Amino acid sequence: MKNLIDCKGLKCPQPVINTKKYFDSIQEGQATVVVDNEVSKNNVAKFAEGNGFSCNIEEKENLYYITITKGASCKLMSSDTKKLTIVISNNRMGLGDDTLGATLMKSYLYALSESENLPSDLIFLNAGVKLAIKGSDCLDSINKLSEKGVNILNCGTCLDFYGLKEELAVGEITNMYTIVEKMNSSDNTIKL
Fold first, then answer.
1. Which CATH superfamily is domain 4-70 in?
2. Any idea where the UPF0033 domain is (predicted)?
């Protein structure tokens, strides 16, 4: 197969990084990325679509073949509005009493969902992923933010670590490469 990017067995975020390196090296063209798990398939497809590339996915024998085409005019879309990214790395806010911390985080997310100035991206990592799962006291606020157009991203490695991937109730599963790209391309990043 011509222009094959073999990412079988690679851990997050390596499939996206390998794909990006290839497409950064060409003006236009096509390649097929091969991955062996659904998370990598989704992450590579999101990378392609986020850059305006066309993307076709086929599943054969427990492998995903993602054929990506880059045209000469493809590039990331830009916006005149300032981008704010908020990274939530804990299910509590601040240090001290855990009950108070949980109350503060719930209050913060509610106030954020009612705000006029919304972030472009809300990233949950480490224990922060516990806020986006079934049964979380914060789900209503996070769902409201999602409905208002905020991109909700949850660290796949973190969900796996806590055994919560099947419990995710809002947003999408992402990888560290995408998290780094979102933070680096943001005009302002706030970490809680």
1. TusA-like domain (3.30.110.40)
2. 5-29
